């Protein structure tokens, strides 16, 4: 694509790379939410400490308003977490076929290993092979 003489070649990322970027994006949003929660927790600590001081105690109306703001904030955080969960579930569904194939191949290998071991048996704490008898 050319824009005002600048050539931009963008390659489409592979599915694994796209899934990786999506997971990194979700992790980044989780970090941002954790920082917001830490900031709000500090805000609550400051408000509580101010209310413990006799000089600058808040009125009941101030406390109710503060509690409402905390409730609204937590509602927003819960909704954000829910959206991140849905994004993660979608990403995992995108990647499910890859792991499904991996799981099936692993199961086939384990089955072949079991078939190879069918002539081996356990007796008195020792492993024996039918050919050994």
Please describe what this structure looks like.
- The protein is 71% helix and 9% strand.
- Helix 1 runs antiparallel to helix 2.
- It has two helices and four strands; from the N terminus they run ββααββ.
- The protein is elongated, with a radius of gyration of 29 Å.
- About 7% of the residues have low confidence.
Characterize the quaternary organization of these chains: single chain
- Poorly predicted regions are 120-128
Radius of gyration: 29 Å
Biggest β-sheet strands, sense, barrel: 2 strands, antiparallel
The outline comes out as: elongated
What is the first-to-last residue Cα distance? 74 Å
How many helical elements? 2
Tally of strands: 4
Order of helices and strands: EEHHEE
Note the beta-strand portion. 5-15%
Class of secondary structure makeup: mainly alpha
Q: What is the average of the pLDDT values?
A: 77
Widest sheet: strand order? Answer: 1-2
Helix content: over 70%
């Amino acid at each position: 694509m050319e824009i005002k003489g600048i050539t931009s070649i963008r390659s489409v990322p592979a599915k694994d790379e796209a899934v990786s970027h999506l997971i990194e994006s979700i992790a980044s949003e989780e970090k941002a939410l954790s920082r917001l929660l830490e900031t709000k927790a500090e805000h609550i600590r400051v408000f509580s400490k101010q209310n413990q001081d006799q000089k600058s105690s808040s009125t009941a109306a101030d406390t109710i308003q503060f509690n409402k703001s905390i409730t609204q904030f937590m509602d927003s955080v819960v909704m954000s977490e829910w959206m991140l969960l849905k994004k993660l579930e979608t990403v995992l569904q995108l990647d499910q076929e890859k792991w499904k194939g991996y799981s099936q191949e692993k199961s086939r290998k384990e089955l072949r290993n079991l078939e190879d071991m069918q002539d081996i048996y356990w007796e008195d704490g020792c492993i024996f092979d039918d050919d050994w008898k």
